[in-house]
Amino acid sequence: MSAVQYIRSLVFNATIYVVMLVYAIAFFPFALFSRDWAFRACHAWCRFVRWAAAWMVGLRTEVRGRPPTGEMIIAAKHQSFLDIILIFGAVPRGRFIMKRELMYAPLLGQYALRIGCVPVNRGKRGAAIAQMKDDVEKGRMDAGQLIIYPQGTRVAPEDKRPYKVGSGVLYEQLGQPCAPVAANVGYFWPKRGVLRRPGTAVVEFLDPIPPGLPIAEFMARLEREVETASDRLLEEAKSGGRSGA
User: Fold this and answer.
1) What 3-state DSSP class applies to 115?
2) CA-to-CA distance for 146 and 32, rounded, in angstroms?
3) Model pTM?
4) 141: confidence class by pLDDT, cuts 50, 70, 90
């Protein structure tokens, strides 16, 4: 990739974080008293990032499938910060299972709590699952789409990591359908580094998995559907065009 693209990427990265700070401060008095305004601020920034990426680094973005509008679990492939932006921007009331440390980030933590994100400690798996169950149960009166990353961390497009049982526990407890989400965004916006590649980054909402399946069956189906669709999207990214579904 050329030095020009690297410089464009550097400017783009700096720009979106400066704008994040500006939006966060400008909307904060309103978001403090209204959850709706917190969502408006976050959605506005997501739209800005997509717009800026297209003209600053040549990175177009696309959301496929049907993003849920009612209460539903969203279990997504996590490759970079971009899939967070695209998924959250596509649903009306998204909230994340997030690392507890993010609660203490200036402004970011306050916005995350304001929109209903569920903080958990990731150090101990069993304790984290129990905590997720308790925290989600307490917040069930807040309508929205609960977003979880089953692999627990960002995973590069061609890497394979196991899916953790936490998403299955939430699926069983909440009794809600689950929308799997595939992605190829890590090919264009890696989890580390400055460079942003031109092309079309995609997240795809797949057909929802109905509630009521045993956890083992749910986990196997979730992993199979997300990984298969993500591999297809990766091949599309490499070829520079839309692949057949």
Assistant:
1) coil
2) 21
3) 0.90
4) very low
